[in-house]
Amino acid sequence: MSKALLTVVLSLLLLFNGCDKGISPEEVTGFSGTISFIGEWPDSIARTHLVVFENPLNSINDFNPFNLRYVSLEIPYGTRIYKYNSADSAYVPISAGSYSYVAVAQSKKPVLSLDRKDWFVAGLYYSGNDMINPGKLIIPENTMVTNINIIVDFNNPPPQPPGGN
Q1: Model-level pTM?
Q2: Using CA atoms, how far apart are residues 11 and 15, in angstroms rounded to an integer?
Q3: Are 123 and 103 in contact (CB under 8 A)?
Q4: What is the pLDDT of residues 26-66, one digit of tens each?
Q5: Where are the domains of the chain?
Q6: What is the pLDDT of residues 82-132, one digit of tens each?
Q7: Could you tell me which residues are beta bridge partners of residue 34?
Q8: 21 CB contacts (<8 Å, ≥6 apart)?
Q9: Whether 108 contacts 46, CB under 8 Å
């Protein structure tokens, strides 16, 4: 096959198979929102993260790395309003799925720990008007779910899952 014919064939292959959506941005799977902090930050806080668990935290055994599906980068101490996007702010990225527990977790320990007793929940994601049960986060493939907003009220913390201090 001549060089010119090979070039034409490769060009046609790229034209018909290489691009089916034109020039479009990469589709991102994740979630975003705002975390609002009310009240004074306790002096003892060393770490603050947004975390997501696949299954509810009904027992101390549910707090484990196999259930943990997302960990944000550290939220700076003293922050009042924190806008986040899971696609660009994660130690552990999230994928499409259904998640039962979305929380702002804080620790007095400066090093990252996976020991339940080192963490307490400062804020929870609630869905709709239900302010009692944690909201369910459902992320479809190639979708950025927005408005997953959380209020951290240091004067009125949410119920703690089993196994904490």
Answers
A1: 0.81
A2: 6
A3: yes
A4: 688 999 999 999 999 999 999 999 999 999 999 999 999 99
A5: 43-165
A6: 999 999 878 877 999 999 999 999 999 998 888 888 999 999 999 988 888
A7: 83
A8: none
A9: yes
